[in-house]
Amino acid sequence: MKTKFILAVILVLMIMISNPNADQSAPVKLSLGNRTDVMNVYAYPNNCNRVCYIPQTLEETVSHYLSQSVNRDGFPDAEVEVACDDSCTVILPGTLPSAYPIRIKDFFDTGLKAFGNASKINQDKKWQYGWRFFLPVGLPLLNHRSVQLLHFPPDYTLEEKQDYLDSKTSSRWESLLEANGIPASEVALYEAIIDISPIAAPSDAGSSLGNTYDYFVPYVRNMLNFLLPVDSKDSNTRPLVAYGSPVRKWVKNEFNITDFKVNTAVPLKLSEQKKIPALGANHPSFIWYAVEDWCHKSDEKSHAWALRVMEQDMISACWQAKMAENRDADIHKTLDSCTDYWESRPFDICMRLETKVCEKTEEDAKKICNSSPKRKISSEDAGKLENVAPMDKFLR
After folding, report:
1. Residue 28: beta bridge partners?
2. Which of 40, 65, 98 is the last residue of a domain?
3. pLDDT class for 390, splitting at 50, 70, 90?
4. What is the distance of C-alpha 9 from the center of its chain?
5. Distance between CA atoms of 179 and 355, rounded to whole angstroms?
């Protein structure tokens, strides 16, 4: 890692001293890699098979995703240009922080290694029809405030939306962060995502990805080291939230911890010097599994279950927001504070469930929430809630 860091610093210094008298706002050029490698890292073409649903050149595709990253990092007017022949060069606005070329190149190099892991899955005859290698491109690389560990990206975010955050999963969690005080204009800064399986697949394909996790452990580890640290002097990294049963199980195995249920806060060891404030959470789309019998069948027992999941999710998002604001805060006291806050607001929890998830009118929601005391679920049902494997059709 030290050698890689030194080489990255040399790269930036070479960029800066190549013309010391140049205007500091002059564009900065970065050699990204050879054309084939760039195509592999950016899944090019995103959707073009004879008839092109997304008729882009390689340059346009890379520019699209890098501009997304720059914009989400807090530079809304910045555009990134790309020029490719046998290799690709990125032209960045000179007004960006000097660290930005390093961040782009480090992400690219990490992604390229992950593509090698994906190729190994194919060599081992485990790659399935309909899968696409897809990295978390277009997300903040520098100024993000938290990291989200998820399962896999849905194929439509690549082949239709060309936006890693344009998914049902991300949209729902964004709304929870906003409910916990994060402005909509800043919510993307909380969504630096790592998938334990960076494979774009149909939303119902989650259970088929289990035998790919081991191949991508080095990639996930590299991405954690890339996205979590803030400053070399800080002992605590950015907070990490792990969503869903497969991801929480991955964390338990990789970090050798025994307990990582929903809304369990633990300090994970990134290195000898750095600790990760981490929280286990429901998968953001798990709520639709929990509410199915309530929203459509008005089953009272299911209502208690759905309210519990909604409450858990609000607590998780609260913890994420507060820990991002103060990384040195006590992870358990922060969780207790968030728990006390949302457990004391059953009406607000109920209203959010009815309007945002069941899509009832505010008037109808008020009738339900005013007439329904806060329901408790039995310890037996709570255990089922924790251990149930969500149906794939509700995921991401």
Report:
1. 92
2. 98
3. very low
4. 27
5. 14
